[in-house]
């Protein structure tokens, strides 16, 4: 963070992208700052799938705060939010290629399956949760061709 302002950084990135790319180009992203001393995650979402914050006690939060995709308007005031990151909490940021991966019947993997895969593994290390998500989406798709990336970031607070 250049000045500690998550939304401001994304606002500046949006303007730069708008000014330097062709009109049909856009970007979705989640941008955030994890503070390991305060145990907080400050974020904004620019048109990306909503990250999931799984609380150790079972509650699920969808991190929706933010705004539109980058690059389509020259000025946009993105909003930001901060969530506390408690021991045992798991944050999952993923690309749409996970939920939109399709099987041979053209049925999507979907959000419900993603939540179940993660929810069933909340006690496991972050790397194992990540591997399970990718494996489940690929297994679901089987031999069907995939047209999008499958990107996943998993962060877990251990203590």
Q: What is the CA–CA distance across the termini?
A: 25 Å
Computed structural class: alpha+beta
Let me know the number of strands.
8
Order of helices and strands: HEEEEEEEHHHE
Task: Give the uncertain stretches in residue-range form.
Answer: none
- Biggest sheet, in brief? 4 strands, mixed
* Rg calculated over all Cα atoms: 17 Å
Mean pLDDT: 93
- Form type: flat
In terms of DSSP E residues, the strand content is 15-25%
> Percent of residues in helical segments?
25-40%
- Provide a count of the helices: 4
Can you give me a brief rundown of this structure?
The chain is of the alpha+beta class and 159 residues long. It contains four helices and eight strands; from the N terminus they run αβββββββαααβ.
Describe this structure in words.
The protein has 159 residues and is α+β, with helices and mostly antiparallel strands. It contains four helices and eight strands; from the N terminus they run αβββββββαααβ. The strands form two sheets. Strands 1, 2, 5 and 6 form a four-stranded mixed sheet that branches. It has a four-stranded antiparallel sheet with strand order 4-3-7-8.
